[in-house]
Amino acid sequence: MSTCYLCNGSRPYFQYYCEKCNLIKRMISLHTLDRVYKILENVLMRDTTKQNNKVKLEIKKEIEDQQLKLSNSTILYDNKNDVLEELKQKLKKK
Ligand SMILES: [Zn+2]
User: Fold this and answer.
1) Of 36, 73, 56, 55, which is closest to residue 83 (Cα–Cα)?
2) How far is the CA of 23 from the centre of ligand 1 (A)?
3) How many C-beta neighbours within 10 Å does residue 6 have?
4) What is the domain partition of the chain in residue ranges?
5) Contact 41/30 with Cβ under 8 angstroms?
6) For residue 17, how many other CB atoms are within 10 A of its CB?
7) Residues 21-76 pLDDT 10s
8) Which helix (H) or strand (E) covers residue 68, if one does?
């Protein structure tokens, strides 16, 4: 075991990052550094109550973005509302 380059926790010898930091790296690859940074900045630069409110707001924003993507999609889904409801339920669990 060696030291993770991001969090200074322990990491496998053959990797630069620990498992959690590798996940963060994958999120950055998927969503871009700017987006991940903006979300972290928006959520974590607040006290606990405001953090919880911000998390709910970010989730709501995520749902609205998904709804917009679905409504702009050229593919017509017969069960579009079911898909939206399923997404909302998944986000509520988080
Ligand atoms: Zn780490």
Assistant:
1) 73
2) 9
3) 15
4) 1-31, 33-94
5) no
6) 17
7) 999 999 999 999 999 999 888 888 878 888 888 888 888 988 998 888 888 875 55
8) helix 48-72
Q: ∠85-89-92 over CA atoms, to 5°?
A: 135
Read off the pTM.
0.53
Q: What is the pLDDT of residue 16?
A: 94
Ligand 1 ion: Cβ-proximal residues, 5 Å cutoff: 4, 6-7, 9, 18, 21
**Distance from Cα 78 to the centre of ligand 1, integer Å:** 43
DSSP helix, strand, coil percent of the chain (3-state; round to 5): 70, 5, 30
Query: 73-84: buried (b, 16+ CB within 10 Å) or exposed (e) per residue?
Result: eeeeeeeeeeeb
